[in-house]
Write a structure and sequence with these properties.
Length: 158
C-alpha cells in the first residue's frame, strides 16, 4: 500500500511550518533573554567581564527554572510558561502573575503572550494603601568616610 502524494505533501508542509514557527519563537525568546531589560529585571550581572551571567538574587522562589540564576534564556522560558499555569508561589501562595507583576508585564509585551490576566486582589489592596500620586527619591548628603550615612540620608517622599 502506498501513501498518496497529496498526503505526503500536506504532512511535509505542516512539519516545515511547525519547525519554522518554532525557530521564530526561539529567536524571539533568545533576543528577549539577552535584552538589557530582562537582565535588569532578573538582576543579572556579568562575572569578571568575561560574559558569564549570574543573578544577584539568592532568595528561594525567585526563579522558575532550576538554572535560572545563571541562565537567562532558561529562566525566561520557565517564567513565561508559569504565567499561564494555575499554580501558587511564594510565601503568600499567590499566582505567579501576582507575585512578579513587572516580570509578567514585560514578558507579555515582549513575547506577545496570549495568557489571560489573573486578578491580584492582594497586590491591588497593597497599592491602594499608599494612595500616592507620585514618588520622589531624596538624597540630601553623605559623609564620605561613612558609607552608612548615604543610606541614612536617603528617603522616599510620596
Amino acid at each position: 500500500m502506498t501513501t498518496p502524494k497529496w498526503f505526503l505533501y500536506i504532512l511535509c508542509t505542516l512539519v516545515l511550518t511547525s519547525l519554522a514557527h518554532g525557530a521564530q519563537d526561539d529567536g524571539l525568546y533568545l533576543k528577549v533573554a539577552q535584552s538589557k531589560e530582562w537582565h535588569r529585571l532578573m538582576h543579572y550581572q556579568r562575572w569578571f567581564y568575561v560574559g558569564w551571567l549570574r543573578s544577584e538574587v539568592d532568595g528561594q522562589g525567585f526563579f522558575f527554572a532550576e538554572d535560572g540564576k545563571t541562565n537567562p534564556l532558561s529562566e525566561l522560558k520557565a517564567s513565561a510558561e508559569s504565567f499561564s499555569k494555575d499554580i501558587k508561589v511564594g510565601k503568600l501562595k499567590i499566582h505567579p502573575q501576582c507575585a512578579f507583576p513587572q516580570r509578567y508585564r514585560f514578558l507579555k509585551k515582549s513575547l506577545n503572550l496570549a495568557t489571560q490576566d489573573v486578578p491580584c486582589p492582594q497586590v491591588d489592596d497593597f497599592i491602594k494603601k499608599f494612595n500616592a500620586k507620585s514618588m520622589t527619591l531624596v538624597f540630601s548628603s553623605a559623609y564620605p568616610h561613612n558609607p552608612g550615612s548615604m543610606f541614612g540620608h536617603t528617603f522616599f517622599s510620596y
